[in-house]
Amino acid sequence: MSFRFLRYCLWFLAYGSACAQFNRPDTLSHTGLYYQAELSGWTAQRSQTPFWLRTNQFGALPWASPGALFNGSLGGRWQAGNWTLKASVQAVGQLTRSPQVVLPQAYVGLERGHVELYVGRRREINGLTDTLLTSGSYAYSGNAVPITQVRLGTRDYAPLGFTKGWVAVNAFMSHGWFTDTDSMKNVWLHSKALFVRLGKQKWHLYGGVTHFVQWGGYSAYLEPGLTRNGHLPRNWTAFKNVLWPGSLEGNANDQLTGHDTLNRVGNQLGSIDLGLELNLRSFQLLFYHQHAYEDMSGVAFQNFPDGIFGLRWKTTTPGKAFQLRQLTLEYITTLNRSGRGPKGYDDYFYNGQYLDGWVHENYIIGTPLFTRTKDIPYALRQTYSDLNRPRSVNNNALRAWHVGLEAQVWVPVQILLTRTTYVDDPFRSDSHRFRQFSMSVALPAIPLGRGLFGGLKLALDRGDLFSQNAGLLFSLRKVGGWGHP
């Protein structure tokens, strides 16, 4: 194994920051074969793993504490002319009170130029954001186990030749399959995104949109008015509405229900993103906004300012033993919700037909600042009054401040601080507010030699939502590979 390959692996473990719209945190950028093996253990004051130990880990770390896990991955990249074949698999064995094996990644991909096709599940973060120190991208954050998909799109920004590189496009479309749960079976995913980048070297202006839809499927637990004999729409008419959402009033057929014709087919959501990147002499600035939408009122910005506002400062002159390398600031709010009117009360990540909400394998797919109802104290759980049943996603009306910091103190140090205020009903004067503070301090990559790295992470929870808690995670990781760097 060459030193250059090992150095690349270390860079991946410690400095995988990017603002790519479809960031894929894997190591398959070099021809050859690589492997990674990791042993981790964690403990906490309570039986629940603290927030910043388990969050944004692609479902690898469970809620239960204490525990241990073995994380093994193998991947390769092979090139033949203009074609590149990639494949990777990652398996995580969780040893807790309820042992299980999780598969965060298992895919095969084919690339040519800027275009790629892949089949399987791959670790991804979608949306315009910082990927190293963020609280989580709004719609697709890397918090949950990835969804199995067939995806066709660009693998990075593809310059339009006639603009001499001044305009570049990044886009994809995919079809996916949600893992079955007790309440929902055979649910599909439709996702797509289109981003445009303007500018060169000194500055870049970004704009784009992400669109995700849960659709189709079967449930034996839904009320008759919400399904056709338990089945949710998945015919050609439904797909056209998923592909290009539009009103279906007056167009009901044997598969569409009144719920579908009054709303849209499936659980539709996403974000409209804007960003500005400035590359200055010794540092880089990235300003970004992810505007949340749940329906057409959100697309029309009637729910503004709901979404994420972010600023990232990042040095471009690394190499010192003591150095501040990156600072990320985010403000998150979801209190407007398009107001009180008939098109308002946007219920982010929750849908009357899809009982589990915007969740995959027990983890929120989007921003992890939203929580599943079953993960919080009974006193704070809300019900869906129209259907007289618990909400699947709770506490999705919030205001939060988040700070992320990375410094070099001989080894990389990362600090995350998040202060959140949850509101049970933002439109009531007597609404209840619940405050939560979570933080972590991590040494993610302590070099021990011969491709071996240690890691430490301390996390703390204080507030109304999670139990007063503190926890520690330690890890030992071995990386290596064969082939050309």
From TrEMBL:
Short name of one Pfam family: Caps_assemb_Wzi
Phylogenetic lineage: Bacteria, Pseudomonadati, Bacteroidota, Cytophagia, Cytophagales
Signal among keywords: yes
Keyword terms, alphabetized: Signal
Source species: Siphonobacter curvatus
Range of residues in the leader sequence: 1-20
Gene3D superfamilies: Capsule assembly protein Wzi
Protein name: Capsule assembly Wzi family protein
